[in-house]
Amino acid sequence: MNMSTITVLGLGAMGSRMATRLLAAGHTVTVWNRTSQAAEALVNQGAAAAATPKSAVADAEFVISMVRDDAASRGVWLDEHSGALAGMAANSVAIESSTLTPGWVKTLGANMQQQDIAFLEAPVSGSRMQVDSGQLAYLLGGDPLVVERCVPVLKVMGSAFHHVGELGEGTVAKLATNALMAVQVAGLAEIVGLLKRSSADAHRVLAAMAGTSVWPAVAGYLSSSMLSENFAPQFPVALIEKDLGYVLQEMGSSQLAPTIDTAHGAFLRAIDEGLAESNMTSVVRLYTRP
Question: pTM to 2 decimals?
Answer without folding.
Answer: 0.96
